[in-house]
């Protein structure tokens, strides 16, 4: 099963900055604390500005390990994975015990689907900082993607010991237990996540999907409805609720959910076909045929491209 982890609109601080001095390398005054300024750009969501200042810091020999680490993170923010990996490896060469450098290198590897390398780098981060919570949680995800659900659970266990009150970790561990067929443990984890944070939509979604998978459609609808109350844009929850509603014979409600999905993803063939089935159950053969034909045209176009 795949599970889908408030934006603030800010006036960019860069707009308030003076024009750079063109006589200075990268437009930066020589007395500037380049690392602090680069970090500010990074936090403001301006990776390009951060890269320029981290680069200037590297050229001047100003806290080079920190600059390499920062530029690696900024490059990753611009989807320059190769550049990020290069910078982070150099930071580790200069300071092999830097847990954050190993951690961010693992993040880069994971984003590039180099999962074995990611697991190894998270391991190095944890060697140097056994209490690195994010490394534990992220490595659990990597282990799960590698088919190592039992190792994923062990990392979640360690992460929960570090922070028992993070609901997401309980949700993820529940998913891993579910993958191993340990349903009672999975339900217990999702219940615990809800106890910690009754507004945590992913716990209701995960439990609802599990109910649906076990034919408990009323319970599935209840949990998925709660997930959608908390996150109305959660497309996966709409699809799963539509499936449960159809199983209960509530095809009009299922069609409503599937139509909402198609408003966002009009070329989703499986959704068109699911809606066609519900139309047929209601005796609306004309609309069912329209959805089937639309799905067939989309599939033919994909095959021909």
Write structural notes for this entry.
Helix content is 72%, strand content 0%. By secondary structure, it is an all-alpha fold. The two termini are 29 Å apart. Mean pLDDT is 90; it is low at 1-26.
Question: Any idea what the radius of gyration is?
Answer: 24 Å
What's the overall geometry?
A: globular
Q: What order do the helices and strands follow?
A: HHHHHHHHHHHHHHHH
Strand % is under 5%
| Unreliable spans | 1-26
* Largest sheet geometry: none
Briefly note the structural class of the backbone: mainly alpha
Q: Could you give a quick summary of the protein structure above?
A:
With 305 residues, this protein is an all-alpha fold. The chain has 16 helices and no strands.
Sum up the structure in keywords.
305 residues, mainly alpha, 16 helices, 0% strand, globular
Fold topology:
Elements (H helix, E strand, L loop, with lengths): L33 H10 L3 H14 L3 H14 L3 H14 L4 H13 L3 H14 L4 H13 L3 H14 L4 H13 L3 H14 L4 H13 L3 H14 L4 H13 L3 H14 L4 H13 L3 H20 L1
Helix pairs in contact: 1-2, 1-3, 2-3, 3-4, 3-5, 4-5, 5-6, 6-7, 7-8, 8-9, 9-10, 9-11, 10-11, 11-12, 11-13, 12-13, 13-14, 14-15, 15-16
């Amino acid at each position: 099963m795949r599970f889908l982890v408030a934006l603030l609109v800010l006036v960019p601080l860069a707009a308030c900055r003076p024009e750079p001095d063109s006589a200075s390398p990268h437009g930066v005054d020589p007395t500037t604390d380049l690392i602090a300024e680069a970090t500010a750009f990074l936090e403001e969501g301006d990776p390009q500005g951060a890269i320029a200042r981290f680069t200037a810091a590297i050229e001047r020999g100003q806290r080079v390990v920190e600059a390499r680490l920062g530029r690696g993170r900024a490059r990753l923010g611009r989807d320059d994975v190769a550049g990020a990996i290069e910078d982070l490896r150099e930071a580790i060469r200069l300071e092999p015990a830097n847990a954050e450098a190993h951690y961010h290198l693992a993040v880069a590897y994971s984003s590039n689907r180099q999962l074995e390398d990611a697991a190894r780098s998270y391991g190095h981060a944890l060697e140097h900082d056994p209490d690195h919570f994010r490394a534990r949680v992220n490595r659990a995800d990597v282990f799960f993607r590698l088919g190592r659900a039992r190792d994923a659970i062990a990392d979640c266990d360690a992460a929960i010991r570090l922070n028992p009150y993070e609901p997401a970790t309980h949700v993820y561990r529940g998913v891993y237990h579910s993958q191993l067929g340990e349903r009672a443990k999975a339900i217990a984890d999702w219940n615990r996540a809800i106890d910690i944070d009754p507004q945590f939509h992913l716990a209701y979604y995960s439990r609802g999907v599990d109910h649906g998978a076990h034919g408990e459609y009323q319970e599935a609808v209840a949990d998925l409805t709660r997930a959608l109350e908390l996150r109305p844009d959660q497309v996966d929850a709409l699809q799963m609720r539509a499936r449960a509603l159809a199983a209960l014979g509530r095809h009009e409600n299922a069609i409503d959910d599937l139509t909402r999905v198609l408003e966002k993803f009009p070329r989703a063939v499986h959704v068109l076909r699911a809606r066609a089935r519900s139309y047929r159950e209601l005796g609306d053969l004309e609309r069912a045929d329209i959805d089937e034909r639309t799905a067939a045209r989309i599939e033919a176009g994909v095959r021909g491209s």
